[in-house]
């Protein structure tokens, strides 16, 4: 049986690589999911609401902390150039870490006042830059491992991150409410250290001219990819701030559970597939080979998964949420039936967006991200009578935008293949 499985992997390396990438994420998300019923019964919706605000801030900061040079690590032909990029990321991240930490120290009272958050949560916000710093370094080291096709090590790093996070949250959760946010920080530290050790990189000293040469060669990433990535990350996390600006931190807590249940499957498959699509299409583009087969394969796999997920959530969400988390979290189930439509479109087209990066269609991707940002941000200036009206509007806007995004991805992929034929 083992021999047959090996032959299958050898014949379809795409399946083998995706299996390794997804396996660690599946196990790590499973660990998080298994302990959610315990955590939801021991922490209040307000606790999870504040934690969600902090984690969304981490995500937004991480979107620009390395000026998107982490996405360039896979591309260089020479391995030494990839290591130079890692050096740049380290220096840039340290700069932003200090800047953000000082900003929080100065404006913490204003932050708490604006978001109407209890002052007992002040300490949580100071951990945001620390968590962002270790997370972006972990992502960068993981991209280096993907470059070297060491997918098993990537999976182990993801598993170590989530395992240590949940361990801290559960272990001291009874006695220390801040364990929710501390768990995230500890998880990112483990993630960073484990990924770095797996790379086996010996950091050597580069002179300024060498690093400047790399900076110039890959300046498309900070120039054209930082802003759209910030906008995209903000849009992906905007629902938290949108609800917080119009309603209460308790509603944010309900929404946190909804988003965790809806987006966990994305981490299981679509994120891993996005990394795979970037790696495989980059290689084919460098060799002037067709990429449409990779594009169609990724689309069909994600579409099939999304359809199954939609059926489960739309028809059985209330029973699932009550059974797992209790009747106190029924509002999360109601929200999930609305947001699952947007989630499915995001599952399919967000990871496929990596193909535009591989095709160096960074400007076009930036324009789409800007349009998406403007469309979603407009909801902050519109008043609705209920939270459900906000959710419906949010879904409609995003579905239309992702359909346009999909058309762009297939169109530019076909243009690439047509050039090869000619």
From TrEMBL:
Give the taxonomic lineage as stored in the record. Answer: Bacteria, Pseudomonadati, Bacteroidota, Cytophagia, Cytophagales
Which Pfam families does the record cross-reference, listed alphabetically? Polysacc_synt_3
Keywords in alphabetical order: Cell membrane, Membrane, Transmembrane, Transmembrane helix
Q: What InterPro entries does the database record attribute to this sequence?
A: Poly_Biosynth_Transport
The name this protein carries in UniProt is: Polysaccharide biosynthesis protein
- Subcellular localization: Cell membrane
What does the entry list under GO cellular component?
A: plasma membrane
Q: Identify the main location.
A: membrane
Q: Does the keyword Membrane apply?
A: yes
Biological source species: Flammeovirga pectinis
Q: How does it sit in the membrane?
A: Multi-pass membrane protein
Membrane spanning segments where?
12-36, 48-67, 88-108, 123-146, 261-278, 299-326, 338-359, 366-384, 390-412
């Amino acid at each position: 049986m083992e021999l047959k499985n090996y032959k299958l992997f050898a014949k379809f390396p795409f399946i083998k690589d995706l299996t390794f990438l997804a396996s660690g994420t599946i196990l790590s998300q499973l660990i998080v999911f298994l302990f959610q019923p315990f955590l939801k019964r021991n922490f209040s919706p307000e606790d999870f609401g504040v934690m969600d605000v902090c984690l969304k801030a981490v995500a937004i900061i991480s979107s620009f902390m390395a000026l998107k040079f982490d996405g360039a690590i896979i591309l260089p032909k020479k391995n030494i150039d990839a290591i130079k990029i890692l050096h740049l990321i380290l220096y840039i991240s340290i700069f932003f870490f200090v800047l953000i930490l000082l900003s929080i120290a100065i404006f913490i009272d204003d932050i708490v006042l604006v978001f109407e958050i209890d002052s007992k949560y002040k300490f949580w916000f100071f951990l945001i830059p620390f968590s962002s710093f270790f997370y972006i370094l972990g992502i960068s080291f993981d991209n280096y491992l993907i470059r070297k096709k060491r997918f098993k090590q990537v999976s182990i790093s993801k598993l170590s991150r989530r395992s240590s996070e949940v361990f801290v949250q559960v272990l001291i959760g009874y006695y220390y409410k801040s364990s929710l946010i501390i768990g995230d920080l500890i998880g990112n530290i483990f993630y960073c250290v484990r990924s770095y050790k797996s790379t086996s990189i010996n950091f050597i000293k580069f002179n300024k001219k060498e690093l400047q040469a790399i900076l110039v060669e890959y300046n498309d990433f900070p120039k054209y990819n930082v802003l759209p990535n910030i906008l995209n990350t903000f849009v992906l996390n905007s629902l938290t701030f949108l609800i917080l600006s119009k309603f209460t931190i308790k509603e944010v807590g309900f929404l946190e559970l909804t988003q965790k249940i809806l987006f966990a499957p994305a981490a299981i498959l679509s994120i891993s597939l996005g990394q795979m699509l970037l790696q495989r299409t980059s290689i084919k583009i460098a060799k002037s080979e067709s990429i449409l087969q990779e594009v169609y394969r990724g689309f069909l796999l994600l579409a099939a998964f999304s359809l199954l997920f939609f059926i489960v959530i739309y028809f059985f969400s209330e029973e699932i949420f009550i059974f797992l988390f209790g009747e106190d979290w029924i509002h999360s189930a109601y929200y999930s039936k609305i947001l699952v439509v947007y989630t499915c479109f995001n599952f399919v087209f967000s990871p496929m967006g990596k193909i535009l990066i591989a095709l160096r269609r960074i400007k076009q991707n930036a324009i789409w991200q800007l349009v998406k940002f403007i469309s979603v941000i407009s909801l902050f200036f519109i008043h609705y009578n209920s939270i459900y009206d906000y959710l419906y509007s949010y879904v409609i806007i995003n579905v239309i935008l992702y359909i346009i995004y999909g058309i762009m991805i297939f169109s530019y992929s076909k243009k690439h293949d047509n050039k090869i034929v000619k």
